[in-house]
Structures are given as C-alpha cells and as structure tokens.
Amino acid sequence: MTFSRELIERFARTQRVAVLTGAGVSAESGVPTFREAQTGWWAQFRPEELATPTAFRRNPKLVWAWYVWRRELVAKAEPNAAHRALVELEQRVPGFTLITQNVDGLHQRAGSRDVIELHGNIARTKCFDEDVVIERWDETGDVPPRCPRCGGLLRPDVVWFEESLPADALARAFKCSAACDLFVCVGTSTVVQPAAELPFHALAQGATVVEINPGATPLTRRAHHVLAGAAGDVLPALLRVLPKVP
Ligand code: OAD
Hints:
With 246 residues, the protein is of the alpha/beta class.
C-alpha cells in the first residue's frame, strides 16, 4: 500500500490527532459489524430492533440473550493489528485522543490507555430502573437477572437507540474533534448520530480528515484522504512509513 507524501507530511507535522473508531476496527477480530451482510442474530434482527429501551421493555429475555451472546463473542475475541497500531500511534504522535463507538473493550485490551467510550461497554451491567452500574448479583435463574438493590431488571451498560450518550464522553469527543489538526475515522459507517457528526465537526474547524474503510460512507466524498482497505492492513502499513519518534 502506498501513501501520498502529503499525508505522511501531515502526520509528521501534526500536533493533535483525534481518532474515531467503529465496528470495522474489530471486524478482523471476528466481531461482526452492524450494517453489513450478517449471519446468526444479525441476520434476524436489525440493531435498531433490539438495542432500544422499548425492545427491552417488550422482550427483556430476548434482548438480554442477544447481549449474552455478544458478550461471550467479545470475550473470546482478541485485539487485532489495527487495535495494536492505534496503541503505537498513541505513543508516536502528540496530543492523541481515541474515541470509539465500540462497546467491546478491545482497544483497552490492546493497550490503549485513554479511550473515550461513546456507547458504553458491554462488559458492564446496570440497573434498568436506577441507571447505576451493578457489579454483583445473585444468579437465581431469572433472565435477565434482578438488581440486588431494587429488584428491577439488569441490562448491559451500553447506549441504546432512543438514549443519550454519556454527557462527559460526548463533550470530550466534540472538544477533541474541534481542537485536533488531524482527524482519522476508522471502520465506521458514519451514519449513527451524534458520533457521525464528529468528523464533520473536525472538518468545519479546519482539520485534515482521513478515512480508513474498505467501503464508502457519507464522509468519503468530504475526507481529504481516503485509504480504502481493511484497518488491520492500512494502519500498520501507515505506521511503517511514518517518521519514528526520536
Ligand atoms: P457499522 O456496522 O455501521 O459500520 C461498519 C463499517 O466498518 C462499515 O463502513 C464497513 O465498511 C467498515 N469495515 C468493515 N470491515 C472493515 C475493516 N476490516 N476495516 C475497516 N473498516 C471496516 O458500525 P458502526 O459505524 O460502528 O451503536 O456503527 C455505529 C453504531 O451503530 C454502533 O456503535 C452501534 C450501531 O448500532 C449502538 O449500539 C448504539
């Protein structure tokens, strides 16, 4: 893979980099993305049909089971070359911020230290009624399990459609996107708001925007550099041509 001199120089000169990742960055770890041809659960349901409080109220067993299946899948998955390259990029470029829509925790498992999680984390559980994180509960056979504090239903601590994103994380993400001079968008379809707004926000503030994605998205025509390929190929190849930190 070849990269333009302009792109390499842009990376070499950058003072602040923001990276936004989506499901595509975990695809090579075997974690299915949301909006591509799917098998299993994904073939039967669209995320918008299961990942909502309305769906949970209607059929909590089904939604809980979907997340148990996904949690197990994620627990067995390993970070891939793209996650590892982003750890190295954090060490190589100044003012680096990693923002993710992923709930799989693979960036942290790869070694990224400061990750802004916009959509929560599938490994955490919270009380549906009280909205507080619950660490332990009795396995009584109830599906979903019951909150040990109030007896309400437990649910994953992820953001569902119809719900707000964590205010602190979102504010930080917008601030970093406005302040960066280089914004890199990796493996996201750039359609789910408000995360999808971040690269456009960076563009409006004058940042150079790079997209890494084998497919086209609403950002593709606006990005300054489009690196069409799998994140696990493109990111390590990019690191190989970037100047080493002395
Ligand atoms: P999507 O499934 O919408 O998009 C995945 C993107 O990854 C697509 O644009 C693919 O072309 C790209 N892709 C696939 N394989 C790739 C690879 N190996 N390397 C790089 N890119 C690759 O996933 P997201 O954009 O993350 O929200 O979806 C955003 C949100 O919608 C998710 O966080 C989730 C979902 O519903 C919630 O659950 C709230």
